[in-house]
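for the recovery benchmark. tokens below, seq after
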């Protein structure tokens, strides 16, 4: 699925060394189906060639308002009509000041004034002192008040050799912001706690008992919840996946650690989505040193005890979050999932067939609640996660916490 299919973007570059990163952003956004018209200020052309941006975008690059290729000399109007967003990256101190004051003395600043309802996303990039300057801060506050969405800036090493706030977001972060921008925001202001992945129970310092959960579903749900405007904490067992953009990940190994981490966060959460495949048992007699093979060939005798049921514990909290459970079953899904929902005491339980869902990229989710069950279509995990988040936002009581 292309995340930016049919989206028309005007990408404005202003003067800054971060221009070199924008070539990569352009490529990644195109890979997702976006059609991109590039507009560059004169200063931007000192940092990256218009030819580069033209070759990458496959479309004419616009440099000034007097471009003879535009027959009606109305590039400042034509470019934004029908566009889905204008992204200014990098946005220099000077350009932000222009935006704040409605100056229109080059093509890019003029089209930002002439844009009408076209959304404006601005990714500042400048030295930390320039970013902290009261005039810059005033101007940023002004363009925000005028409706611009500010992307970043990030903190870190700067091209000038200083360290601080003012770095432009990385290309993959700009892309995540742009994709998220086009998603509805039904969870704005909500805090969502999610568990994902397997847990891993120690036998000795080298060996563990775990399961085959990849974490893909939980991570997709974390991304979808973040895109929907929520603040997201993801308590994750061991997986190979990178944390979704702007999701706070807490790494754990065992079910006991996951239980502790979830308990720690649950009081702050409005919604808890328990996607992790938590190990049901842990080894009581785990060894502190590596178990050696016995000369007589006998296997070690492991003793087990049950792990705490994290979801059931959270569902029991008197004013805890609104809880969503998961059930992966190999058979009798409808019967087992509804029974599990009742047993765990959760308003919503999401069922899927383990053999279809485990490690796969696509899944069919079935939602069980008091009204019965509804199947979502078979979708990629991110698309399915977005549908699930929309359903959760719909079902969420207006005021889940007293
Ligand atoms: O108990 P069972 O594993 O069948 O239920 C699955 C649901 O319960 C999932 O939402 C899973 O994340 C959660 N669970 C849990 N703690 C456990 C076992 C399962 O939170 N110890």
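predicted aa per position
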């Amino acid at each position: 699925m292309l995340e930016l299919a049919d989206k028309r973007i005007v990408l404005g570059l202003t003067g800054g060394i971060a221009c070199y990163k924008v070539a990569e952003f352009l490529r990644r956004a195109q890979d997702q189906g976006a059609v991109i018209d590039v507009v560059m200020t004169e200063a931007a052309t000192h940092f990256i060639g218009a030819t580069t941006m033209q070759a990458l975008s496959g479309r004419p690059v616009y440099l000034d308002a007097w471009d003879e290729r535009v027959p009606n000399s109305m590039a400042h109007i034509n470019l934004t009509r029908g566009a889905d967003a204008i992204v200014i990256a990098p946005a220099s101190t000077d350009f932000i000041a222009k935006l704040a004051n409605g100056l229109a003395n080059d093509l890019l600043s003029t089209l930002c004034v002439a844009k009408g309802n076209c959304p404006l996303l601005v990714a500042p990039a400048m030295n930390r002192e320039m970013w902290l300057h009261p005039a810059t801060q005033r101007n940023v506050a002004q363009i925000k008040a005028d409706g611009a969405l500010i992307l970043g800036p990030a903190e870190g090493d700067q091209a000038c050799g200083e360290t601080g706030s003012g770095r432009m977001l990385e290309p993959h972060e700009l892309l995540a912001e742009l994709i998220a921008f086009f998603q509805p925001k039904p969870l704005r202001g909500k805090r969502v706690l999610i568990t994902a992945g397997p847990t891993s129970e120690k036998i000795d310092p080298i060996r563990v008992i775990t399961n085959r959960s990849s974490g893909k579903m939980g991570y997709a749900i974390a991304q979808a919840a973040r895109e929907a405007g929520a603040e997201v904490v993801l308590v994750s067992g061991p997986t190979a996946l990178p944390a979704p953009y702007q999701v706070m990940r807490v790494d754990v190994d065992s079910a006991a650690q996951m239980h502790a981490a979830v308990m720690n966060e649950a009081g702050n959460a409005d919604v808890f989505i328990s996607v992790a495949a938590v190990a049901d048992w842990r080894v009581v007699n785990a060894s502190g040193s590596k178990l050696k093979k016995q000369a007589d060939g006998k296997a070690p005798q492991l003793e087990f005890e049950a792990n705490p049921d994290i979801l059931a514990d959270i569902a029991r909290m008197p004013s805890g979050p609104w809880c969503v459970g998961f059930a992966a079953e190999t058979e009798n899904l409808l019967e087992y999932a509804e029974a599990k929902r009742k047993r765990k005491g959760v308003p919503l339980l999401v069922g899927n067939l383990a053999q279809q869902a485990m490690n796969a990229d696509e899944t069919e989710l079935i939602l069980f609640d008091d009204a019965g069950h509804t199947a979502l279509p078979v979708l990629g995990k991110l698309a399915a996660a977005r549908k699930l988040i929309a359903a959760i936002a719909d079902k969420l009581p207006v005021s889940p916490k007293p």
